[in-house]
Amino acid sequence: MERTAKAHWSGTIKEGRGELTTQSEILNKTNYSFKTRLEEHQKGTNPEELLAAAHSACFTMAVSFALTEKGLNPTSLDTEATLTMEGLAIAGIHLSISGAVPG
Question: What is the model's pTM?
Fold first, then answer.
């Protein structure tokens, strides 16, 4: 399986802005910028938020798969991922999951 996403950036780091588009186009020219990365209440996303979203989605699907394989059919699963950065490095991703699983 291969999936693609594209990023475009215009301008300087602080005054510029970018657009993200995924292969499915669920993100289609979605805004990201220095301001959406570091300032509160800015409309748009940022790379760290996208990493946390992807990690929580992948983990939640994997847990659903593992439970289903064991004959336990979840009715809902909710995962929150908290990504921590130190400088330019990912220091960690903490996952917290809750759900409803009959039996």
Answer: 0.86
